[in-house]
Amino acid sequence: MKKAEVGNIIEFREGLQGIVEKVNENSVIVDVTYMENYRDLELEQKTVVNHKNYKIIG
């Protein structure tokens, strides 16, 4: 499995998307403000996603 890099757009957890801001050994930190409707979803601005739980889309 290819790990995301800083700046990649990833999809995780049932269609949520975000921009990778930092890559850690087992996870990435993602800025979810990339999604137009992130405020409607009542999410935090950033979240941590394990490398096993996303796919790179851009």
Question: Could you please describe the fold and organization of this structure?
Answer:
This protein has 58 residues and is mainly β. The protein has one domain (9-56). Helix content is 0%, strand content 43%. It contains no helices and five strands. The protein has strands at 9-12, 16-23, 27-31, 46-50, 54-56. A five-stranded antiparallel sheet has the order 4-3-2-1-5, with no helix packed on it. Strand 1 and strand 2 form a beta hairpin.
Summarize the structure.
This protein is mainly β and 58 residues long. It contains no helices and five strands. This is DUF2187 domain-containing protein.
Which key terms come to mind for this protein?
58 residues, five-stranded antiparallel beta sheet, globular, DUF2187, DUF2187 domain-containing protein
SSE topology:
Blueprint: E1 9-12, E2 16-23, E3 27-31, E4 46-50, E5 54-56
Antiparallel strand pairs: 1-2, 1-5, 2-3, 3-4
Helix content: under 10%
Distance between the termini: 15 Å
| Silhouette | globular
The total of beta strands comes to 5
Radius of gyration: 10 Å
Instruction: Kindly name the structural category.
Output: mainly beta
Run of helices and strands? EEEEE
Q: What is the mean pLDDT? A: 95
Sequence of strands across the biggest β-sheet: 4-3-2-1-5
Characterize the main sheet. Answer: 5 strands, antiparallel
Oligomer: single chain
> What percentage of amino acids are in beta strands?
35-45%
Count of discrete domains = 1
Number of helices: 0
Low-pLDDT segments, ≥5 res = none
